[in-house]
Amino acid sequence: MDSERWDAMYDSRDRVFSGNPNGVLVTETAGLPPGRALDAGCGEGADALWLARRGWQVTAADVSGVALRRAAATAPADVRDRVSWVRTDLLATPPPAGAFDLVSVHYFPLVRLPGHAALRGLLDAVAPGGTLLFATHALADLPPRSREGPAPADHYQPGDIAPLLDSTWNVLVNETRPRTTPAPAGTNHAHDAVLRARRMP
């Protein structure tokens, strides 16, 4: 990913996102026992901090150093030791295999490529007994073309990922649902496409 472009986007305003955790994360992980979590594309850190407050040890990864510095600056003292802010491009450098009880991938720019290398890196990071949680904007809510970069239809949807999971996975959720929080200003993101899958112990 282009780190300079993402840094410029975060530098363009004081806050890009709401500061609240994603509704899908709250709904789908509230009942999970805390463990080790990877927040892929953590941005300004709302999801990572929500998980940390609930006892998770979080690796919060993003390509933007600006976003990570902003996220770390907002972390309350009582959870700072539960979050590691890591600047990395997860599309180019996969996370450690089998290292996380939860891999959370929310609105991450994951483009379908032959061999699915970047996706498989994230899948492999889920430990036995762990959970993959993938959420993105429903394709019907997106324009057919992007102003820059790949078209929305070139990015993974849950229906693309579920068939790639072998018999060591149990798909628990694969659906499109109305958003539980308001859409970002200037967008028509009324629905989330959600996949939650558990890797067998």
UniProtKB/TrEMBL annotation:
Write the record's keywords in alphabetical order, separated by commas.
Methyltransferase, S-adenosyl-L-methionine, Transferase
Q: Where is this region: Disordered?
A: 177-201
Would the keyword Membrane turn up in this protein's UniProt record?
A: no
Please provide, alphabetically and separated by semicolons, the GO molecular function terms listed in this UniProt record.
methyltransferase activity
Any single Pfam family the record assigns to this protein: Methyltransf_25
Enumerate the spans annotated as Methyltransferase domain.
38-130
Q: Name one GO biological process term.
A: methylation
InterPro entries in alphabetical order: Methyltransf_25, SAM-dependent_MTases_sf
Q: Which PANTHER family match?
A: METHYLTRANSFERASE, UBIQUINONE BIOSYNTHESIS O-METHYLTRANSFERASE, MITOCHONDRIAL
Name recorded for this polypeptide: Class I SAM-dependent methyltransferase
